[in-house]
Amino acid sequence: MLLAGMVGFGTSRARADGIWRPNVRLGACDWSLGKRSDPGSFAIARTLGLDGVQLDLGENPSSFLDAGKRRAFEDAARQHGVAIASLALGILNQVPYKSEAITETWVRDSIDVAGAMSLEVILLAFFNHNDLKNDAEGQREVVRRLKRVAPRAEDAGVILGIESWLSADEHREIIDAVGSPNVRVYYDVANSNQMGYDVYSEIRELGSELICEVHAKENGALLGKGVIDFERVKDALAEIDYSGWVQIEGAVPQGADLMESYHWNSRFMRDLFGG
């Protein structure tokens, strides 16, 4: 597929103002656009001037093994000139990967889906029923399962990104235990800030070797008007030579119009990163 989302876009670049910026492409999560697992997300992303959409594989990720179903999303992406940036398994929040057998099939099948769509990153969500924080046995089981599926991801050139409430050090422990370069961290700045972690230090600690993709998120505020200092996020990403997708998630104040909020968020991120 021509509009596939690729991780590598070169190193950080200097602008005319002399400021170094990471070389990123800007997208949004389809669920944040109100179009979870819906090809309509690409038309919205185009009106926002975004480069791509992160596609959630819905309640039955294995259904995307069907080429016809994938084609609806690929055609929409091509029609609107917006990339399918990466995939997400949000269903794992309700049907936990750390305990339910069916989820191993979903993760395995999602790798095949990513391969068929020429995509490199799959977000594995670890919240709600799938939370790993203070769950040592859950973490051990996830390591066991990731060890089994990692060779398939490696063969396909697909990265499994862990998004969770864990700290950078806790993420690194899981990744080291799995022992695969294709298991990395899907870094969400708002989640980490909510847990009291130093977002800017964690980005530098994990580096571009372990961060596969980034969520630019606020909870209940527009980007740039909440608690996250996105200038410092940009600087940290530039320092580690991050080259990849930054996906806008959340960032809608209570009672605010979704589209008005996302026009703001998209302009803010474009001004911040340039291009």
Q: Your description of this structure?
A:
With 275 residues, the protein is α/β, with parallel strands linked by helices. It has a single domain, classed as TIM Barrel (Alpha-Beta Barrel), CATH 3.20.20. It is 41% helix and 21% strand. The chain is built from nine helices and ten strands. It has helices at residues 41-47, 67-80, 102-116, 136-156, 168-178, 189-194, 199-210, 230-239, 258-273; strands at residues 13-14, 20-21, 23-29, 52-56, 83-89, 121-126, 159-164, 183-188, 211-218, 243-250. An eight-stranded parallel barrel has the order 3-4-5-6-7-8-9-10, surrounded by eight helices. A two-stranded antiparallel ribbon has the order 1-2. β6, α4 and β7 (159-164) form a beta-alpha-beta unit. α1 runs parallel beside α2 (67-80). It starts with 12 loop residues before the first strand and ends with a helix. The model is unreliable at 1-12 (pLDDT under 50).
- Number of helical stretches of at least 4 residues: 9
CATH fold-level name: TIM Barrel
What is the N-to-C succession of helices and strands?
Answer: EEEHEHEHEHEHEHHEHEH
CATH class: Alpha Beta
Number of separate structural domains: 1
What gross morphology would you assign? globular
What amount of the residues lies in strands?
A: 15-25%
Please report the distance between the alpha carbons of the first and last residues: 24 Å
CATH homologous superfamily identity:
Divalent-metal-dependent TIM barrel enzymes
Indicate the radius of gyration in whole angstroms: 17 Å
* Sheet with most strands: 8 strands, parallel, barrel
Number of strands: 10
- SS class: alpha/beta
Secondary-structure arrangement, i.e. CATH architecture: Alpha-Beta Barrel
Mean pLDDT: 94
Helical residue percent band: 40-55%
Low-pLDDT ranges: 1-12
